[in-house]
Amino acid sequence: MKKIHILGLVLIAGAIGALLSLMGDISTYDSVESARKKEGKFVHLIAKIDTTQPIIYDPIKDPNYLTFTAVDSLGSTTKVVYKNAKPTDFEKSARVVMKGSMQGETFECKEIVLKCPSKYTDEEAAKSVKMTETTYKATTE
C-alpha cells in the first residue's frame, strides 16, 4: 500500500471518529411531557411564555433569578427557573428555546434563546394591502 492510501484511510477514520463524537450533541426539541420522562437529562424545549401567569424577576433582590411558566405546542405547561439575568425583550418573544433539564415538575434552564417575531411581518402585511389597493384602482379605472 502506498503512503498516500494509508494517509487517506487515517483521515477517513479520523473524520468518522469526529462525527461519532459530535452525535452526542445533536438533539431535537422535546415537549414538556417527554422532558418529564427524561428527568435530569439535558434537553431542548421550545415553548411560549404564559403571560397569564406571573413572571418573577427582581433585579434588585436577585438579578440572577427568573421564573415563569412555559406552554409548549401541545398545551403542556411547566414552571421554568432560569438562574441568570432576564434576556432583553423577554416578554415580547414569540417563542423561547430553553436548554436545561427537568427536576421534578420544574424545568431548570441553563440557557434561553429568544425567537422573536419577524420584524418584517407588519411591513409585508402593509405591502400586501397597498398592492391590493393598487390592483383595485387599476381595475376600476
Describe this structure in a few short sentences.
The chain is of the alpha+beta class and 141 residues long. The protein is built from 3 helices and 7 strands. It has a domain at 28-120: OB fold (Dihydrolipoamide Acetyltransferase, E2P) (Beta Barrel), CATH 2.40.50.140.
Please describe the structure with a list of short key phrases separated by commas or semicolons.
about 140 residues, single chain, about 35% helix, elongated, alpha+beta, OB fold (Dihydrolipoamide Acetyltransferase, E2P), five-stranded mixed β-barrel
Can you describe this structure?
The chain is an alpha+beta fold and 141 residues long. The chain has a domain of 93 residues: OB fold (Dihydrolipoamide Acetyltransferase, E2P) (Beta Barrel), CATH 2.40.50. A 5-stranded mixed barrel has the order 2-4-5-7-6. The C terminus is likely disordered.
List the helices and strands and how they pair.
Blueprint: H1 3-22, E1 29-30, H2 32-37, E2 43-49, E3 56-57, E4 66-71, E5 77-82, E6 95-103, E7 106-115, H3 121-140
Parallel strand pairs: 1-2, 5-7
Antiparallel strand pairs: 2-4, 2-6, 3-4, 4-5, 6-7
Strand order of the largest sheet: 2-4-5-7-6
Largest sheet: 5 strands, mixed, barrel
Low-pLDDT regions: 128-140
Helix content: 25-40%
- Category by helix and strand content: alpha+beta
- CATH topology term of one domain: OB fold (Dihydrolipoamide Acetyltransferase, E2P)
| Total E-strand runs | 7
Outline: elongated
Helix and strand string, N-terminal first? HEHEEEEEEH
State the end-to-end CA separation.
Answer: 81 Å
Radius of gyration: 24 Å
How large is the count of helical segments? 3
CATH superfamily of one domain: Nucleic acid-binding proteins
* CATH class label of one domain: Mainly Beta
CATH architecture of one domain: Beta Barrel
Percent in strands:
25-35%
Mean pLDDT: 80
